[in-house]
Design brief:
With 202 residues, the protein is mainly beta. The protein is built from two helices and eight strands, in the order E-H-E-E-E-E-H-E-E-E. Strands 1, 2, 3, 4, 5, 6, 7 and 8 form an eight-stranded antiparallel β-sheet that branches.
Length: 202
Amino acid sequence: MADNCSQELLPVSNTNLNCDPVTGLPIPGIGQQVVAYFYQEPEGDAPDLSTLAAMQAAQTAEGVDRVYGIKNISNGLVPAGTPRVQEGQQVAYGVRSLVGLARQATGDVQYFSKSDQAAIDRLNLRTKTLRAWYLDNNNYLHGPIESAALKAETGLQLPGIGDKPAYYAMVLSWDNITEPEISDTPLPHLVNFTNTAAAPAV
């Protein structure tokens, strides 16, 4: 376990206005919306996913190494985390201590097929955690996120005539004080991710 009492100080240099230090050209900021989820069995080897070849290998990998995706996410948000604290009798000297941060990435899954519905049902029945990532609307990949859960918060929603398409309200949830890793550059090839097999068993 990391010694959080002696973490090295690092500088925060957020004055470059999102410009590449070599070319001087603007770098796209991370996105404001979740547009896709990816998930994998936790026992599998976490793939890189930063190249088209790596993505294709992850799509077709055998067993626990295969990665699955859910795309066409609307209203994709990452709200502020909920702190988990210990205080009073739980901590020596009663000092308030942050021990975790419950996090979520929410979104509505639209334009799904019957096989997609079956995969979502299987995620809802799942009792063990998984490894997950999410892609934002500027194609930055966030993750991998370990010990995550991905479930439909409600059943199938059938809006009225003239409203948005039917959808599942999905929630990716995890608990970690630190932010998920973010890819160094946008990864637009992930927009074309296609599932090649059924989702993993419960």
